[in-house]
Amino acid sequence: MQTTILKAASNFLLPVLLLFSIFILLRGHYLPGGGFIGGLIASSAFVLDAFANGLVYTKSMLRFHPGFLMPLGLTFSFLAAISPFFVGKPLMHALWMKGHIPVIGKLGTPLIFDIGVYLVVIGAALTIIFTISESR
Amino acid sequence: MLIVVLIGFLLSALLLFTGNFFKEKKLSTLLTILPLGILIYLLSFGKKIAQGEVIYLHYEWIPAFDVSLNLRLDGLSFLFGLLISGIGTLVFLYTSSYLKGHHFIDRFYSYLSMFMAAMLGLVLSDNLITIFIFWELTSITSFFLIGFNNESESCRRSALVALGVTGFGGFFLLAAAVLVGASTGTYALSEVLSNPEALQSSNYFSLICIFIALAAFTKSAQFPFHFWLPGAMQAPTPVSTYLHSATMVKAGVYLLFRFYPAFEGADLWHNLLIVFGAITMIYSAYHIIFRIDLKSILAYSTIAALGILVFLIGLGTKMAITAAAVFIVVHALYKASLFLIVGIVDHETGTRDITKLSGLRQKLMPIFIIGIIAAAVSGGIPPTLGFIGKELIYESTFHFSRSVVFLTILAVFTKILLFYAGFVVGVKPFTGSLPTSLHKVHMPDYKMFIPPAIMVSLGLFFGVFPSFIENFISKPVTQISGFTDVEHLKIWHGFSEILVFSMVTILIGTIMYLTLKPNYKLKGFISKLEVISPLQLMNDLNQGFEKISGWWTNLFQNGYLRHYVATCVLFMVTSIGYVVVFNFNLDLADQAFHQLTFHEVAIIVIMLGAVIFTVVTRSRLAAVVAMGIVGFSFSLIFLFYGAPDLAMTQFSVDTLTVILFVLVLYKLPKYLKLTKNVLRLEHGILSLTFGTLISMIILMVLQQPVQKEASEYYGDNAYLLAKGKNVVNVILVDFRGIDTLIEVSVLTVASLGVFGLIKLRIRSRDKK
Q1: Where along chain B do its domains lie?
Q2: Looking at the complex, does the CB of residue A91 fall below 8 Å from at least one CB of chain B?
């Protein structure tokens, strides 16, 4: 299924889609989007790349196994969930930084939590798809 | 006090890491310090207990469920605590020599100290739930100890049987505890027992009564649950000594004792205990004659002794309760020492077959002397404590209110056979001429014969000076039963009928011992009756159960994915179909069909077309793509109805699903028609019915007034509380963040599962 057109397109589409997924992730708190959708979009971007350039290429480009994103993401989410303990608040209590950052908006533990979800979704989806496509 | 309960568990955990050290340095004797320390600690309370004091200690555990680690040391706990730690000390010492150099000796000590801790916890607890927990812990540790020789299949089987039977009883204990809690409002045992009226007026009284009795019967090996105990004799001798004669099997008796104030006077209770106790003692006493294996003889005599105890508690008179308390001590002393003697004989000669053992006195003279005294205590020959125990038993049957003759005959019959059993085990192997095969036998280590020597000396000493033990016996009896005093223990009761019974017992017992020789003929006779024994019945029941569950499993689990799906769908259709069809009243006029817009109709048409195409197409890829179209149409519907988040998610998920399908299908062979037309028709009808049903449910749901409280709350507070404008996302990452956290964990586990399963298959194929 490796065609020149798809190859050429995917070289552009991959970074664009990844940027888009991060955009979707960040805006999730105010507009449609969020970690879950962002993660799915990012995984589709990699899957598209794998279709166009072959799985071996995509994997070598990633440098590490996508499975490692899962524990990383879980750590993010978990830390975000327990961080209120350090200031004497109950589990999952949202902490927000004061002030406003351009593009992202307000920065707080829910965003870190969502980033964790984003990473887990990419890791899980890619692990499943890559594993299945490798099996013969 | 808490340390007494916990230290055993601590030691057993510690042995995990230090076991090798103890094993290599051969320091296992040192571990005896633990039970000895507990014994000394408990003895330090002796004075307070003798004054009738009850020591309470309160530790909160799960206050929300009224479960607390309440400990209570009263006369009864004290008596049992002394038995557990005292015999524990001797058994620990004995084991260090018995299992010297054994590969798993550290493991053995670990189980043993865990068991001791559980047992102490059981007798010290004052809360029904913790009693249940410790009760189960003793069953579990017993399982590990019976199956200690885990390479032998029969050991493993016996361990399972024992666990099954005692675990079965454990259920009843839990049920009884819950019922007691429900009817009295507390799980604190001392509160329940100090106010027995509350329990007796409960609707569940008879049930509680039966459940407690059942729990005790299974643990204390009463007929028809007795069969696990002879099997449990597969365990190493120290285990048989400690768990299956001196302590664990007495847990049931302890429970009956403990609940005595609550059930006293209830006919059901007394009759249950008398009948089952009597059957047990007769049934197993009679079995003693037919046994060849020394441990087997002891097993049946233990069951008989437990029967006597249950029987005595059932009689429930002051005399009977005193007799039971004395007999607990007597039995622990002589039975444990007989077991230890059998262990020595087994250890030195390598056999427990009574027909092959004789003349050992030439080699093991000190053991022979211990054996004679143990047999004397067991047979109730004066001036041992056994004699006092036996007299009390006869007194209580002879002075009971009804069926005096019958009950006394039962007691005498059982005691005669116990006398016989004691002498066969304690004396017979040592008399006669020494066969040549046993010429190399030599005396064991002092660690092995000191423990039984101590026990029998105590049996003799307490017999001559009963006042030393009277306080230990009288306190439990008075505290439990409310009698102000107990019968004075004394060795000489004067000339009476009771003395005649004692003499008759000793006489007939001696005649039996001299004339009846255990042999294989007798054993063969009883083996024929095994067909109708409870053990056989249980095995048959197990096999039947296995067959039925095998058939049942094969019926549903035939390995075809479509079959599983069809079964699930069929179940749902039948279970909810009835309700839906009979409650379905849809007013079609209400449905705003006229409001349908063009794009909505278009989507529906596309979806329908895609579904039909999926069913009829002969290409896998086309079917997958058609399914994808359905999914994308759904995301359009979500978009139309104002759920952009959902639409985006559905869209991405569908994209990935299609890709996944294509990846898998790419590798499959060409689409073949494998199923029969009839089956396809069946599945088609099933799918249509299911679809219709789901549609009906959705229409019904839409007719219900919508509960908007939750969505309104989230809508109102998303920005105020969580500083987010996208409610869906705020719910995901904030309001219900814990759910999300768990979901992503599940996602991780699932994908690891896929990874593991497929990689494993690839790797195993690569190896080939």
Answers
A1: 273-517
A2: yes
